[in-house]
Amino acid sequence: MGNPIYVIYLDQFTYNHYKDKDIKLIKADDNSFKNVRSNYCDYGTRLFRNITMKKFPGIKQVLKLHKEVIYMDSDIGVFKNFNTYFKNAKADILCSVEYNGTYCAGFMYFKKNKRTLDFIDKHIQISNKRINKREYFDDQSIFNNISKWCDPVIIYLPEHKFCNGHYIEDRNSHFYPGCYPVPKSAYIAHANCIRGLDKKIKLLKKLGLYLISSQPQTDNDK
Length: 222
Fold this sequence. Notes:
Elements: E1 6-9, H1 12-18, E2 24-27, H2 46-52, H3 55-65, E3 68-72, E4 76-78, H4 83-86, E5 93-97, E6 103-111, H5 114-130, H6 139-147, E7 154-156, E8 162-163, H7 165-175, E9 188-190, H8 197-206
């Protein structure tokens, strides 16, 4: 889309896969996370939550190099260039919406300024304290908690343009039976709220957004 693409990677398999491509690589490696191992894991487990909290140090690294950053999870497909949408962004942070009306930390726009950097630092600080704890905390719940009292202006992205999995499933069941899975105005489709890797892949394939040619063969590859 004309701007550098960064992959925040956790393991050697991911590095090897992307190292020869036109993509910049950043290892999600902060001293506070040195005891968190990288491996295939299921959604909602403590390991999964620990890994998701590693994204914000990576986002901070990229934001130091650029005036703005768009972060997106790996289960998101892009229909068309969304750069123009963010060109005149009035907010410090723009965030997609979760099925329950909260902020979704799977797709976020960050504008570099002191308010945004302070927000990210606060997120990392709280994550450091919560990592490996038994309470249910992940990057998204921390994001939503901080947003209630931190300074940045945060605005929801419209759900019909930045579609989450729950919105897509609803649209294809009782709201709009038989219609195209997403509106023509949509920029992205996020396969969150879709339980199971196979179901995520099925949805992205249906939308013509699944680009991976082969599946990992072992747990060590994932």
